[in-house]
Amino acid sequence: MRPITTMAATFLLVSPLAAETGLPDEATVQQVLDDHPSVVAARARLEAARSRAAGLRRGPHEVTLSGSYTRRSVDIGGEFDEYDAQVTRAFRLPGKARLDRQIGQHGIAAASNLAEDARHQAALLLSEQWFDWLSASARAKVDRTAVANYEKSLAAITRRMHLRDAARLDVDLARAALAEARVALDRSEGGTALARARLEAHFPGLPLPIEAPDLPSPEISDTRLSQLRDLVVLNSHEIGAARAEAKRRASIADRMDKDRLADPSVGVRVFSESGGAETGAGLVFSIPLGGGHRRALAGEAAALASAARAQEGLARYNVEETADADLVEARYRTAAWRRSREAVEAQIAALRKLRKGYELGEIDLTDLLLGERMVHHAFLSETEARGEAMRAITKLRIDSHEL
């Protein structure tokens, strides 16, 4: 059963300097994220915000042209052509144009942050499904190595039985262990295929190699983890979007308060009556007289501004929670991986002693196969712990925008 040594070389001697080798190419990832539907939609909403801001800069008022034409018939005077024409335009009162510009600018800032956050969420989804695939593939490699070990063990025990150095029961036990390992391999290979299919479905533009890359070792200092935690809050687009939305709502509330005094309309009117016998031109002026409706709209805008300020505070709480949770998870996942490495080394040392004892006839095959299973499970635990640690560290790096 010496092939277990090969398993140790494969899964324990992973270079800790290869922390980036388990990730896809950065340029490819950038393009894949840009093409993701959620990111495309967010960019479109950003363009909509820019167009809305341009409209707010120009203002809501346009030139209005109105007029009329009549043909009047008078018993004594006969028939006359009469007409009038009027050109009017409303003008924003002082302060309103400035608020409209602020509303547009804050809207762009909010949409820009939401677009970046959509890209951030797409990156998290890619990372999650990427490590689903890598972890499943790593488990399949462990199971494949275990199957190869059991196959060689079965062949060796069968030869010993033919030489009358082993009982038929030992062959049956070795065959049962091999069958169990093959079942585990079928499950892990199926999980690998499923994880790859999901990754390809969500990110069809990401070219995947035939074989998943090896899981790198999650080597990172605690100091660096703490630095990344602080960057999660500092670089949060969620907080930025909530802050910009709160400012936008505050500007809208100020705008609606000013709108309680409606904008006046000023224009020029010309007319001709009695077939041109009477003509004239003059200025026209109008202003709506605001009432309860405008006051209610201003109250609604003020309430929504207050709600937006509360949402900004909630966003900060959520991001703080995410940062703390990312840090805690990265720490304990990394610690668990280190313990799992120690467990693998201890199980391998124990297996060597069991092997020696079996060769000397001091223990039976059942104990040796139990040792083989424990080593197999130790490697599976190490692989799972390594994948979860890398997943947690990568999430922290993405949330901090370091990656």
UniProtKB/TrEMBL annotation:
- List the InterPro entries hit by this protein, alphabetically: MdtP/NodT-like (IPR010131)
The UniProt GO MF terms for this protein read: efflux transmembrane transporter activity
**Name recorded for this polypeptide:** Transporter
Species whose genome carries this gene: Erythrobacter aureus
